[in-house]
């Protein structure tokens, strides 16, 4: 028998209270229950990073986070990154540097990079590549992704 | 995923009592391994007891220079801690060599120790596996075992333990503090994980109703001069083929103290006592390093397709010692 639980989350500044199956991942909550389809389901095993969101200010794989375990958390998704109608500098840099091809991994790449800017990483290409190794791009847009992130982190 | 009940532990005693009363209960930390295994239906707990809101989130410095790390401390916070980075760099490096930034933000210290093997047969419920289903057999012995164990394995299981952090902690003589229905006990980290023997379903010596509350890293002068080296099939975000944690204290060209542990070789972090003994008091030369590596690795029993790990482990250890030596 499915078990249900009550969860309240603050998502992109707005409070949401939901009654959920305990099996619901944070990713499915966003996509299936709230229609926030920016965070993508790639592998659903924490290996590709397409589902990356900010969970209490830190990047996390929404596919491996059980919604019920994060009751009370503050979530930011790609939909909440732009402020007052202007793109986040990373969003603008990804456009400027053509840092994607199909775009499926891009929300995860940008949310991950948004957190990396606040993490203790060095400035070199190798540092950016290491910091971003949890985000896979099957199109192979890595050189431009690295360039976009470096432009913003400078 | 099978349905499960979810309960947030309010106290240590409450968590232990719930575990003891519910045989199908599992502890939930960051969930980065457990939730994945539940999705694969390798794990099918009836109840999840979430221990992430218990007061295990601190890293406390002991007066003697050691550290007490709460079981709930996230991997990324432990890696970034200034005391860890200066006194025990091998631990910080090992943590950063594991998983990805996203996963390290969720993963806890206790959960990292209790993560399960990534052996492909273990993770596939359509295949036999003695660890998942005792008595069903081990297809890895004759099958895909390129990245599995070369030492300490048994005819029943050739899995490796996947943690990087645990390899560093094994080299550092860490202690694991545990509570259960009968009270607390302390286990040496090198004794926490077991060799598979005839009961590979048991990864550790913990009882199902015990809870890890903290990891203690005792002071160790040599640890300030320590490092972690990991060899994998791509540059980042991949499990170790071979890894080594080394702390080395050399003075006047002579090894005063050395601690060595291997990852990726066995069912547990492999503390290389034989290599350490061979090096103690010897010259800090490449020749001595190679002799020490051989003293340990001559006991390896590689499988058909993973003999490369013997030489890889040897070269990795020799190179790492040579880089640490003054």
What does this protein look like?
The complex is a heterodimer of chains A (154) and B (326). Chain A has helices at residues 26-33, 89-96, 106-116, 125-131, 142-153, and strands at 4-11, 14-21, 52-55, 58-61, 74-76. Chain A has 5 helices and 5 strands; from the N terminus they run ββαβββαααα. Chain A has 2 domains: 4-80, Beta-grasp domain (Ubiquitin-like (UB roll)), CATH 3.10.20.30; 89-153, Orthogonal Bundle (DNA polymerase, domain 1). Chain A is 30% helix and 18% strand. Chain B has a domain at 222-324: 2-Layer Sandwich (Enolase-like, domain 1). Chain B contains 12 helices and 12 strands. Chain B has helices at residues 12-21, 34-39, 75-80, 82-87, 89-97, 101-106, 109-113, 165-171, 189-192, 273-279, 286-297, 308-324; strands spanning 5-8, 25-28, 47-50, 59-61, 67-70, 175-180, 183-188, 211-217, 226-231, 242-251, 254-263, 270-271. In chain B, a hairpin with a 6-residue loop joins strand 11 and strand 12. Chain B starts with a strand and ends with a helix. The A-B interface holds A 1-3, 5, 21-23, 25, 44-46, 49, 52, 55, 58-61, 64-66, 68-69, 71, 112, 115-116, 119-120, 129-135 and B 1, 3-6, 8, 28, 31-32, 35-36, 39, 48, 50, 52, 76, 80, 99-103, 105-106, 235-237.
